[in-house]
Write a structure and sequence with these properties.
With 124 residues, the chain is an all-alpha fold. It has one domain. Helices cover 82% and strands 0% of the residues. It has 4 helices and no strands. The chain is elongated. 31% of the residues are buried.
Length: 124
């Protein structure tokens, strides 16, 4: 239960990071929404990894290969899932970017927790 609660706290902060980066890259820098999504997601993935390592699963040890495992699971699935979701919701349906991005984040939530808890940060 402790890990799940901490995962949610880190995840909420990561959502703020992701949405802020998406808005900055799209609205301020003028990037295409899919390129902005990919960079925003990767920024949130790195943010979340750091806080999961330092706080959520801190008792499970040093990062070692955990960053590589996190990138190859949560990172790739999050980027691919967000790009697919954004293409469908923002591109095809026409939802505004931030609500579309929130829907894609929510769709990936359970997968990301299970992979992080059972694989990336598992006890060794």
């Amino acid at each position: 239960m402790k890990h799940w609660l901490r995962f949610n706290c880190v995840g909420l902060a990561g959502i703020v990071v992701q949405l802020a980066m998406l808005k900055l890259l799209r609205d301020t820098a003028g990037w295409h929404y899919l390129a902005a999504t990919a960079i925003a997601v990767e920024t949130a993935v790195l943010h979340n990894f750091y806080w999961h390592w330092k706080w959520t699963w801190a008792e499970r040890g040093a990062p070692g290969r955990r960053l590589l495992h996190f990138q190859c699971t949560t990172g790739l699935i999050s980027i691919a899932g967000n790009l697919i979701g954004m293409k469908a919701l923002a591109g095809a349906i026409g939802l505004p970017l931030l609500p579309a991005n929130l829907f894609t984040i929510a769709a990936l939530y359970a997968f990301n927790f299970l992979v992080a808890d059972r694989y990336v940060f598992r006890l060794r």
